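Input:
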Amino acid sequence: MKDIKPAIMMLLVFTVICGGIYPALVTGIAQAIFPRQANGSLISDTNGKVVGSALIGQPFSDPKYFWPRPSATAEFGYNPAASGGSNAGPTNPAYLRTVGERVKTLRDTGVTGQVPADLVQASASGLDPHISPEAALLQIPRVAVARGIDREKLHKIVNDSIEDRQFGFIGSPRVNVLVLNLELARL
Amino acid sequence: MNSYELLQTILFFVVLLALVKPLGSFMARVFQGERTFLSPVLAPCEILIYRISGVKPEDEMGWRRYAGAMLFFNLALFASLFILLLTQHLLPLNPQKVPAFTWQLALNTAVSFTTNTNWQAYAGEQSVSYFTQMAGLAVHNFVSAATGMAIAIAVIRGFVRRKTSMLGNFWVDLSRCTLYILLPISMIFSLALVSQGVIQNFSVYRTMPLIQATSQVKPRFDDQGAQFKDAKGNPVVESVSVKEVQIPMGPVASQEAIKELGTNGGGFFNANSAHPFENPTPVSNFIEILLILLIPGALTYTFGVMVGNTRQGWALLGVMLLILITAFGVLQWAESSGNPLVARQGVQSINMEGKEVRNGLAGSNLFTVATTGTSCGAVNSMHDSLTPIGGMIPLSLILLGEIIFGGVGSGLYTMLAFAIIAVFVSGLMIGRTPEYLGKKIEVREMWMSILIILTAGVTVLILSGIAMITPQAVASMANPGVHGLSEVLYGLASMSNNNGSAFAGLNANVNFYNLSGSLAMTIGRYIPAVAVLAMAGSLAEKKYIPPSLGTLPTDKVPFALWLTLVILIVGALTFFPALALGPIVEHLMMVG
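Output:
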């Protein structure tokens, strides 16, 4: 019974330390030395208006934009207020039909050959800002026609936008779709 | 696996193993009450905490009092979070004006975070205020982890001490663990995570215009709020244009670090560590996997130091590594082989459903085995969408009892129970009295070990059986057929073993899972915890038997292999039928 008071007091003390002092301290230091990252890696257009976060993907379906991965977030795709994946199982017939429809949409734009998996399978967060370099290169013909710009030039822009593995070997090479589309808008 | 993936995986284990010894010996110093380099700053805080709480640090506790203090403390933890969740709409730091939890969900969530499970039947960004995240969930992340570590240390003392009934002081172990180990490491790594892009602020959610507007299909309602139906009785829907979105904010990094370090796993956001604000880069992913395995790995060294033979610790770590790396290999194979039913449609044959491009296959799979081998339960890919054999890997790691590194503290003490079983069985085979670490293993130790090992497994099987005949439980399945069975089995296994990850299609916020899950998490945490303390109490009272010619050496490779075998046999005997009905059948259907 003599441990009831310590149980309650310890709870209070550690609530103050771990729930108050610790996050406040981390916030203070983070805001001082990494303000951009701590506030969501926001990106602004040339007028200084915030147009999104470099880490949060946006939905694009117009042929003149590069398309991101499918998103299974609630209400509408790329809804940042409701992150999540499809949770579709590998043999779920409805899921397999959906993948088939996505492949067809790509085929209708003239895509031939093997389709990169990331372009027809939904991400875990539903907000994945990236696609694989293959998935970006594959979309060049469509975007070039829709914008009426030279394929070679577009190819160079896409190549320049590929983010390499960190330190040369950690993670996968990738293209940030929002950043790339903003780049195109600047042309 | 390409050479980059191989290289990053090898580097990962090199870094992890390099940290085992320094952190392990530091933790041994902390728990043995010695001075450390942090003492000049933290010792005064420590003394102050004892004074405020009315704790006499030199008071030693027998196993009953140690267990009682642990249970009182956990009860207080549960009550405070339960109340917080029911009243968060009245409390400060709630810029999104989120409402209170229902009592069923609050019960489940409070049990979940108190038991170090962090099963979440809610979406963080929509349901939890910043105040609850910090003063509730984050605090529980720290002290539920410290609770597990304190128990593990008391158990080690049981092996080390002779002819005494005293196991140390729970309050001292809890405080020193939180102050000297969990807080400093979390502090450093939360800032490292911010540098990668994990957010840390108290802003309201940001509203932002979309570059290209999108559309949302919504049901139409009349003035009274009833849905419009067409002539056939189907709801009438309309397409609404969406021109702007809300991006959630919050103090994420401070929570992220302890979420992984304490093998808690409760995400700030619904997508957990798959969310770009929780885990934005391959390097942050590397850090998070490292944090998950760091303390459970290093504790084996702490154990070795305290029992006076570090090879005893390396033997246990070797068993953990062997099973973890094998599991990773199988998962990597399954996911890079992909899904033939998808590949048939002209798609590249790897499985990217429910994975993030930046993490790639290896970064996703390593996270998956780390988070389920330990009782962490954070996810950076959606386990429900793994291939059938791929999904069986995390499920099996959970079902083995959370010992492949395991939860902080709980992994070690459960592994020690397995070691006792292994010593006992081999003792029977060679006809000698079983001993482990110089202590004779007798009836009481065996009873307690069996309780520790089988409690969670029996709970999983009974509850899964009940779920299959409960309409509400079956209706929660998101995927049809045998995959639905895997979802239910995974969910109950995850809660019973205090993991917290899910085959997340399962709609878990219904009374059946909220209530049976609360029960499963409580049983799975506290029966083994009290049993292992009881065992420690009886071990401490025994005298030391010096090793003789007939003693089985438990610090050598043959014993490590034998222990691995015992773990796998116990796991297979308990769960093979259930696994055969779920993932194995689904695999056969998929490759058809």
